[in-house]
Design a protein that fits this description.
Blueprint lengths: L2 H17 L2 E2 L14 H21 L1 E7 H13 L7 E8 L2 E10 L2 E13 L5 E9 L9 H17 L6 E9 L2 E8 L1
């Protein structure tokens, strides 16, 4: 009769394990975490407004976006989605690349995600995004990842610039040393 409590305890542990998610690996996050804050997003919005206001008079716009601003913007953007591709983003701007880390979930499994993106400008003066690598650990890379990332960046671009977006021509995007510098002209 004493075997019954062990059997119930084992069953309870198995059911508890199934109720949780199982971490299955993936690329390691960089050592230095980037904080997420509403202040960083508000600061980014203010910088965009100030750059556009100055650009309306000068004709050219240049601004630098840092890793905290971009990470915070992406974190809040992902939180607003019903089923985001990943959560807990960290965006590093280094060596001409945007390195994005996060956590993806598929069923009971979670994995670290690493996506490397290069950004440039197309012939029409709009952002051009290319995913150079995507590592979802042992999970399959989601179908349509490139389109989803491109759409998110396009939406961020047009929503940030608002009504000026139609009269703004992007000329360059440079990524280095924790900053993404964006330059363009107002037509």
């Amino acid at each position: 009769m004493q075997k019954k409590p062990y059997w119930l305890a084992t069953l309870a542990l198995v059911l508890a394990a199934l109720a949780c998610t199982i971490f299955v690996g993936g690329p390691d996050y960089p050592v230095e975490p980037i904080p997420v804050s509403t202040e960083a997003v508000l600061g980014l919005q203010e910088e965009i407004k100030a750059a556009l206001k100055a650009g309306a008079q000068a004709g050219s716009v240049s601004m630098a976006i840092n890793e905290e601003q971009l990470t915070s913007y992406l974190a809040f953007r992902l939180q607003s989605q019903a089923e985001p591709l990943f959560t807990e983003p960290q965006v590093y701007l280094r060596d001409g690349q945007m390195q994005i880390y996060g956590k993806a979930r598929q069923g009971y499994f979670t994995a670290n995600v690493g996506i490397v993106v290069t950004a440039g400008v197309d012939e029409q003066g709009r952002p051009k995004v290319e995913i150079t690598s995507a590592d979802f650990g042992p999970l399959p890379v989601p179908a349509g990842l490139k389109e989803t990332m491109s759409t998110a960046i396009e939406e961020a671009y047009t929503s940030s610039l608002g009504p000026i977006a139609t009269g703004f021509r992007l000329e360059s995007i440079t990524i280095a040393n924790g900053l993404m510098t964006v330059a363009g002209r107002i037509k």
